[in-house]
Every structure is written in C-alpha cells, then in structure tokens.
Amino acid sequence: MNTANERTRSTGGAQRPELGWALVPIITLIVLLALAYFLFGDEAAKGPNQIALTMAAIVAILVGFRHRVSMDEMRAAALESVGTGLPALFILLAVGALIGTWAMSGTLVAMVYWGLQLLSPNYFYFTVVLICAAVALCIGSSWTVAGTIGIGLMGVALQMGLSPAVTAGAVLSGAYFGDKSSPLSDATNLASAAAGAELYRHILETLWTSVPTLLLSLGFFFMLGSPGDFDASSLTEMLAADFDTGFVPFIPLIVVLGLALLKLSPFLTIMGGAIAGALVAVTLNPGNVILAANDPDLAYPLALLKGVWKAMASGNVSQTGAAALDQLLSRGGMESMLITIWLILSALAFGGIIEKVGILDRLLEPVLRAARTTGRLIASVVAASLGANLLVGDQYIAIVMPGKMFQSAFRAKRLAPEVLSRAVGDSATVISALVPWNSCGAYMAATLGVATVNYLPFAAFNLLNPIITMVFGFMGWRMIRTPEPRTA
C-alpha cells in the first residue's frame, strides 16, 4: 500500500490513484463496449459505443473525486483533449464533402472504370496495397489516401464482387506503410520528436521493420487472391455510356495530390478536392446537379449552386436506375460523418479525464518496472501504445505518451532515440486504425464504409508491424547503442 505522501501530488491536494481504483473506469469501459457489441453488433458505433464511453467517463470522474481531483481540473482536461481532436473532426467533415461531390461529378465513376480496366480480380488486393503505399509515401497521409484513392478502390471492389473488408484491409496496409515512412507525415514527425530522434534517421530505422512487414503483407494478399470469372465489360460499357471517363473527372484527384505535395493542411487539401469535384460536376453533369437541387423555381445558376451545396452537406443521391451504380454513387456529405464525430468526441473526453486523474500513469508504471531486457522494453512500448490507443482514443496522444515516458528507460540501456521512435511508430501509429472508438479507427470505418471490427483481421500491415518490431527487440536486431549513457 502506498503512503499518503507517495500518493499526494506535489501540486494541489490530488492523490495518485491506487491500481485497483485506476482499473475501475477501464473495466467499466471494457464491459460496456463488449455489451454494446453483443447487443447491437456493427451498429454499436452508431450510438451505443458513445454511451459506453460517456458512462465510463462518469465513473472516471467519480474516481477523480475520490482522489481529490476537482471537477474544474477534469473539465479542463476533457476540453483540452477534445481540442486536440478538432483538426481530425474538420478533416472528417471535409472528407464527407469530398465524397459527395466526387460521387456527383463522376470522379468516383472514372476511378472505378479505370480500375475495372486495369485491375484483375486475381491480383486486386495485392495491387491495392502497392498503389496506396506509393501514394501515401508521396503525400504522407493515410487519411488522405483512404479518403480519396481508397474510396475509389472500394468502389472497384464492390463492382467486382470482392470483399469490402479485405479491400479495406489492403487500403490500410498500403496507406499506413507510406504514412509512417514518409517525412511529410505528421505521425512520423511526431514519433521522432516525442522520442528525441532525428527525423531522417528515424525514417531509416523505421524501414528496417516496415519493409519486411510490407513484404509479408503483400504475400498475405497475394495468397488471398480473388480468382473468378468476373466479366467487367458490360459494366464498363454502361459507365462509359453514362459518364465521362476521360481526363476531366480526374482533375479533383490531381488537385488533392498536388495540394498534398505542396504540404497544405489535410483539411484544406481535401476541401480543395471537394470544391474541384463540385466544379467538375457543374461542368460535366449539370443535369444531375439540377436534379439534386430539386427546385424548379430557382434560376439555373442558383440551382447548380444548390445542387453541389447539397452534395457537400448531405451527400449525393444517384437515380440512374442501376442498383449497383446507385449504391456506389449515393453517398457522402458532411452529415454522414456526424456519428463518427460524436464517437471521437466521446473518446477524447474520456481520455482527457483518465489522464488528468492519473489513471494512465498508474497503469503504465508496472509495465515500466517489468521492462528489464531490451526485448521486454520494446514489448513494453508496444503494450503501452496499444493501451494508450484503447484508452485515450487518439493517435497523437498514443504516440506522444510512450515516446516521453520511455525515454529514461532507453537512455539507461544506452539505446539510441531512433530505437524508441521506431518502436512507437511501429505500434502507436498503426494500431490506432484498429480501435473502433479511436479517431483513426472511426475515420477509416466511416470513410471506407466497413466496420473496424470487420476489416481488422485483414489489416495485415497494421497487425504485423508491432509483432515485427518486438521480434527485432528480442533478437537484438538494429538495437543501436549510444557510445555512453546519455544524461537527461
């Protein structure tokens, strides 16, 4: 049992929670989330999970009261945590607008058309990984890749009759390899900064674990294959007859890639693509835009404006009469992202409260004590990253916390900062997309249209990368040492 002096913090009268009390909100959350999935299945993310997080946050507040943390402190912590997620929420809204205008403009149709022309079902998943990896490496954003090219590839898979869950796993596998290996990635920069590593040395060390993981993932998707007798000719003929499949529909995609390479923020990049989609829709498909406006009394220019405005706000509704095509094109709008935003807000508020109460520090302390060997130390970083992603619900916090908390332990073992930053990137970054209530998991599920629990078994890169980094740790591979113990 800790003494009162050990439990009492140096500032204020707040006490450090005992392990038993620290576990109460966590167990509450686990039980409620499990119950939500048992009762509601895939619909759990549409409200029940948010209620579970809210109830667990209330339990955490009660634990905070017991340990003399004031309501004002916990409220401020929750608001600060939610504030860190605001950029992600705006990106989500931008993606909703982009999907709506790309569906209306024919950009999605053009991507599906050329995807059907160029990709065979026999190596589709394999190719998806390569395409997403290459683009993410260039632009440094898994979110942008999933919200643009990923959406088109999901549409191609739908038309081919292939598994949406496997396709989503392939998109994530490629997108996260490129994201964590790119100097343009905010997650990559954050991992290196949190661990005190130099950026390009961090990326070089990351490739030692990321490339083998990518090769294993490619082998996994190649073996899955998708052999069949799919004949795309009738569908491609229908698409070419009803839509422009030439260069112009790809302008919004080119705009997104160009703005990303110019290092504009993801929000501005994706909104630029959405606006470009609206302009292309007005140019190529004015009839569809007028139909969407559904207001014959409006002047023609205002009707065009109303149509694309509606697509950005509420999504596109396709009325071609072809069921498969209407399913592909009836989607998007900022409105479609509101449930996901609700989930992220709930998770961030919970994460901020348990961090303020000291629950995270208390839960990670035994992990640090058990990390006596290099292999155990790396495994502890992975475990801490997993726990932070599960409990805090935000990728950035899950990257920063282990990076900061393990610095002294790595210095004591004379391990270079790049070893820590690599372990953090190999775990915190990729695991985030596998947690349904994490901002990344919620975003990917909403964007790709596949529940997190459904694509999780097929997100090969995300599942294997933490394992590979632990193998390196236990085998002693690339455990770079400093010449002498580093001082704090």
From TrEMBL:
Q: Which residues cross the membrane?
A: 20-39, 51-69, 89-116, 123-143, 207-225, 245-262, 337-357, 377-398, 458-477
Q: Where in the cell is it found?
A: Cell membrane
Q: Source species, please?
A: Sedimentitalea xiamensis
According to Swiss-Prot or TrEMBL, what is its membrane topology?
Multi-pass membrane protein
Regarding protein family, the annotation reads: Belongs to the NhaC Na(+)/H(+) (TC 2.A.35) antiporter family.
The beginning of the lineage is: Bacteria, Pseudomonadati, Pseudomonadota, Alphaproteobacteria, Rhodobacterales
Residues of the Na+/H+ antiporter NhaC-like C-terminal domain: 174-477
Keywords assigned: Antiport, Cell membrane, Membrane, Transmembrane, Transmembrane helix, Transport
Q: Which domain of life is it from?
A: Bacteria
- Give the PANTHER family listed for this entry: MALATE-2H(+)/NA(+)-LACTATE ANTIPORTER, MALATE-2H(+)_NA(+)-LACTATE ANTIPORTER
UniProt name for this protein:
Na+/H+ antiporter NhaC family protein
Q: Which Pfam families match?
A: Na_H_antiporter
